[in-house]
Amino acid sequence: MFDQFKHLQALGKLVGRMDEIKERFAQVQEELKLKTVTGQAGGGAVRVVVNGTMDIQSVHLEPTLVASMDASDGKTRELIQELIAEATNDALKKSQAMVRGLMADLAKEFDLPSPEEFGGDLPGLGGLLGN
Fold it and tell me: What burial letters (b/e) apply to 73-111, b meaning 16+ CB within 10 Å?
């Protein structure tokens, strides 16, 4: 019960600083477009670069991997596809972690509990709704 009051108090703070928070959030969104992470697979034979808005910036295949490709060989094609998917998933997970970190920093900046303290990804709603 006291946790719900704590959440209400935090939401009250949030509402009072809404313009400032919106402006800072817009800045963070722009930062996320510029920040990148790299996922890899096959010991780095495949690398995928993703930004903080989950947009794929580039895919790199090592020349030795490309040289070993035989387009008529279904197993080779399948392996390359799996490596690309693995590297992409790795990059996306890293990007999501980067976003969570920036959102936690933003919450600290405004002296608000982190989304985890609220019980979910939507600040305040999870805890207030008893989820």
Answer: eeeeeeebeebbebbbebbbebbeebbeebbeebbeeee
Neighbours of 56 (CB within 10 A): 14
Give, for all 131 residues of the chain, the pLDDT tens digit.
566 777 777 677 777 778 888 898 899 999 999 999 999 999 999 999 999 999 999 999 999 998 888 878 888 889 999 999 999 999 999 999 999 999 888 888 877 766 666 555 544 333 333 33
- The first and second tokens of residue 93, run together, are 């997970």
Question: Using CA atoms, how far apart are residues 50 and 62, in angstroms rounded to an integer?
Answer: 18
Distance CA 37, CA 93 (A): 9
Name residue 125's amino acid: L
Task: Please tell me the pTM assigned to this model.
Answer: 0.73
Report how far residue 63's alpha carbon sits from residue 45's, in angstroms, rounded to the nearest whole number: 8
Please give the Cα distance from 33 to 50 (Å, whole number).
9
